[in-house]
Amino acid sequence: MKPPFVLIPDNVSTDTVKCLETLLRHARKGEVIGIAFAAALKRRAYITNTAGECHRNPTWARGMVAALDDQLADRTRATTK
Fold it and tell me: pTM of the predicted model, to two decimals?
């Protein structure tokens, strides 16, 4: 039986371009097999979507996005104290 998927710490930059370049480099190596994302655009607009394994397996993608929601909630609480 395969082990479950686990959240691991990352060293991805918080700079938008550097972050995307890092993810692209890992995707080209075959290390990133899917992505679920929300991207903030100019003029107060945004897009959300999935690709790869996250598109094929929406249940898994929803779990990943829920983990992101938890992280953002923790950061929000930390900045309001």
Answer: 0.84
